[in-house]
Amino acid sequence: MKLKVEGIAQEEVLRFRHRGLDANGQSPLIRRSEGGRNPCRHCLGLIAEGSEMLVLCYRPFASIQPYAESGPIFLHAASCDRYASDRLPDWFASLDPALVRGYGADDWICYETARVVRGAELTAACESILDNPEVAYVHVRSKYNCFQCRVDRA
User: Fold this and answer.
1) Residue 82 neighbours by CB under 8 Å, 6+ apart
2) Per-residue pLDDT tens digits for 66-93
3) Is 121 within 8 Å of 129 (Cβ atoms)?
């Protein structure tokens, strides 16, 4: 199965970089990356140690509903290119563990699809979940439940 993996849309990122409000109605905070493990949800790359980044609350859903989870994410403060590929970024293999779950076209969680997997198993888990015709897309999240990216069928 071919996958479609994309970072957060350019329009959203530009809004946050211009101090637009996050899912909590607050302006993003500007911080410096620490520890080299802060992933940008736009380019899906790791933000270099000491680089400026935005920290904000993000809800990766078009509307508010019971399953529209929100949580903290990081974005490069400076311009970066949106990630768009048929595969997950290589560094996702280091997510240990990672959470994956499918969502229906109504954006509700398909409970039977939720899994905790090692980073090296993410691609196979996404493909398996997307084999279910009731699943419209998959979210990849960190062990802390922080949104990483959305995965669709290509």
Assistant:
1) 6, 7, 8, 9, 10, 13, 42, 43
2) 999 999 999 999 999 999 999 999 999 9
3) no
